[in-house]
Amino acid sequence: MKTKDITPDLKKDQTYLVNLLNEKTSLKLDIYQNTIQWFNQFKIELNNCVELIKKEVTDERIRLRVVEVGETETQLFIGSDVLIFSMHTNVFQLDKENYASQTSYVKKNPMNAYCGIINVYDFLADSYEFNRSYDVGYLITRIFINRENHFLMEGKGKLGLVYKDFMHQVLTNDIIKDIIMKVSIHGLDFDLFTPPYETVQTATVQDLQSMNYSSKLKTGKRLGFKFESQQKIT
Prior knowledge:
This protein is of the alpha+beta class. It contains six helices and seven strands; from the N terminus they run αββββαβαββααα. Strands 1, 2, 3, 4, 5, 6 and 7 form a seven-stranded antiparallel sheet that branches. β2 (73-78) and β3 (81-87) form a beta hairpin.
């Protein structure tokens, strides 16, 4: 019986691999660098916004400050909230089922669908200041930015309705200021919810002395949403 020739086509695979590195991987590195630059602009505008608001806020007890944690995270303490701006270090492709992916802008050049992401989470400021590690926070919006600075914002409520035209929207410093204002308003507009009595009616001495009761009483806010992997951007 004649043996089938299964000699691998190494040259073909090598060419394909090199093309992937030169095209897709290089593209992702460009997008990452571009997202870093925009994230740095978010940091600048966060500080600018805080300084602007401070001039009009008369109560000195109100929290208004920015804390830079590292290259990819910064925190906005505003009132009773802390908004965590976190840049993801990976690059993602917009879901093919999303409306943005169906536009001529992406169909003509599928590389336009690759984006960096900046996530914004909302926590209670006390959760951070008192190190209540069991408290919960919520993802309230995420911003997709591609290599050409086109962007898209997903979010809860009004945050998901403002900037959804990926094909025509280009990120600017003024838009960043507007996003900061809108996510701040969104966070402050939602208040604490009371946990069910049954979940907090007992506590150990260790809960109260060592963990500030945080293992029993998880404090959070009645907001947040779930991004479905197949959710359409509308």
